[in-house]
Amino acid sequence: MKDLLETNIEELKLGEKVDYIKTLKDERTSINDLSKKFTKQIELAEISFVEACKEAGTDIARGKLATASVTTEEAPNVEDWDALYDYIDTNKASYMLYKRIKMAPIQEMWNMGREIPGVTKIIKNKVSTKTL
Questions:
Q1: Burial (CB count within 10 angstroms: exposed 0-12, middle 13-18, buried 19+), residue 35
Q2: From CA 34, how far away is CA 26, in angstroms rounded?
Q3: Contact 117, 78 (CB under 8 A)
Q4: How far, in Å, CA of 127 to CA of 132, rounded?
Q5: Where are the domains of the chain?
Q6: How far apart are CA 119 and CA 77, in angstroms?
Q7: From the CB of residue 76, how many other CB atoms can be counted at a distance below 10 Å?
Q8: Which strand ranges, in their side-by-side order, compose the sheet holding 60-62?
Q9: Helix (H) or strand (E) run with residue 27 in it
Q10: Cα dihedral 49, 53, 54, 57 in deg (nearest 10)
Q11: What is d(CA 66, CA 82) in angstroms, rounded to the nearest whole number?
């Protein structure tokens, strides 16, 4: 692949440029597919790590390459979109939306002790690693 990225594009003939572009796009697709597999495997490993930490009664662990810890954070979980949209319309609170519900304004309202119709809190696990 390194050779592919070091190709002198200007030296290629017209048809070769077409083939080069096709080859680059195919390689990119393969890399993206592989990236998705890595992302899924990381997700599975993090779920397993969180469960293992719970069983061990800890929220931090150390390997030979890194340390990892589990933290929690509140996140909105919309159970009734109609109720939420009614609330947003009534209170002119469209700032709460951005293709998904925005955490900052929701958290601010929760911090003020206000409930938001159609939204409940869920606890999400977050795993962070640090190179040793």
A1: exposed
A2: 12
A3: no
A4: 16
A5: 1-58, 66-132
A6: 5
A7: 22
A8: 60-62, 66-78, 119-131
A9: helix 14-56
A10: 180
A11: 45
Question: Per-residue pLDDT for the chain (132 aa), expressed as one digit of tens each?
Answer: 669 999 999 999 989 998 999 899 999 999 999 999 999 999 999 999 999 999 999 999 999 999 999 999 999 999 999 999 999 999 999 888 876 788 899 999 999 999 999 999 998 888 766 766
Pairing of strands 60-62, 119-131: unpaired
E strand or H helix that includes residue 66: strand 66-78
Q: Of all helices (H) and strands (E), which one includes residue 128?
A: strand 119-131
Nearest Cα to Cα of residue 91 among 103, 78, 106, 104: 106
For 26, phi and psi rounded to 5 degrees?
A: -65, -45
The tally of CA atoms less than 13 A away on the side-chain side of residue 8 is 2
Q: How far apart are the first and last CA of the chain?
A: 30
Rounded (5°) CA angle 130-66-30? 85
3-state SS class at 59? coil
